[in-house]
Design a protein that fits this description.
Helix content is 43%, strand content 21%. The chain is α/β, with parallel strands linked by helices and 242 residues long. It has a domain of 165 residues: 3-Layer(aba) Sandwich (Rossmann fold). The chain has a seven-stranded mixed beta sheet with strand order 3-2-1-4-5-7-6, with helices on both faces. The longest helix is centred in the C-terminal third of the chain and has 17 residues.
Length: 242
């Protein structure tokens, strides 16, 4: 059972960088619902895309799987024989809880949950790869390398689903969408102190790209089709097809 996110509700004298530790795992479902606009739509549509793009006898990767929401959504929609889902996260606390969630829902599609750095995972025979709010936590220098590895491991016609927080080159646009996101958090019960302290904690570990940066990267790597399929404020999700 998820607890309410109160991690930043009291004043913190020295705010450290945000980490996916046991405290975050305990409140993560509440945190993500109250912090990421459109999250449920993204998760449900990942399942719909999986139903469309999964191929028999292929691998499906959920890189940065956290508690397994995208993995479970895909597994509910995949009905082909020989599909294997590989869910990866580098947080031991997340992996432990993810395995519990996976085991609680039985399915014919096997899932292997791995504790590892996603940059060390070899992508092979993949029809689907998901990066659901994951790439933004890598250093900018590592992002192209990871996407190139994914591209090499995707089968022709395979899809990458990439959900991210965005920044915008136009300052007025960027500031407006940040303000609307903060209004969204206020409407979901977060205080000004919580919003401010969370922002301070995450600003050094989450460095968002512009949508154009993502598209240019996809084009340079060789994806044949790519675009934004969902956006709400400064959050969204894209697809890239090999």
């Amino acid at each position: 059972m998820s607890h309410k996110d109160t991690i930043y509700s009291a004043p913190i004298q020295q705010i450290g960088d945000f980490t996916f530790d046991e405290r975050v795992v305990e409140v993560f479902p509440d945190m993500i619902q109250r912090s990421v606009p459109g999250y449920n739509n993204i998760i449900s549509t990942i399942g719909m895309l999986a139903e469309r793009f999964a191929k028999p006898n292929t691998n499906i990767y959920d890189l940065g799987c956290s508690l397994g929401a995208a993995t479970l959504s895909m597994r509910r929609h995949i009905h082909h024989e020989g599909c294997h889902i590989i869910a990866v996260d580098n947080s031991s606390a997340m992996v432990e809880r993810c395995r519990m969630h996976i085991e609680a829902y039985r399915s014919d599609t096997p899932v292997k949950v791995i504790e590892a750095d996603i940059r060390d995972i070899e992508i092979t025979n993949a029809s689907i790869v998901v990066l659901n709010f994951t790439l933004q936590f890598l250093s900018p220098d590592d992002r192209s390398q990871l996407l190139e590895n994914i591209y090499r491991g995707l089968r022709p016609g395979g899809i990458l689903i990439l959900s991210e927080k965005y920044r915008f080159a136009d300052t007025t646009t960027n500031d407006l969408l940040i303000d609307l996101h903060h209004e969204f958090k206020r409407a979901n019960g977060y205080s000004e102190l919580e919003i401010s302290q969370k922002r301070s904690a995450i600003e050094n570990v989450l460095q968002p790209d512009t949508i154009e940066t993502h598209k240019n990267r996809f084009a340079r790597i060789g994806f044949s089709s790519f675009d934004v399929w969902f956006q709400c404020f400064n959050f969204g999700s894209m697809f890239a097809i090999k």
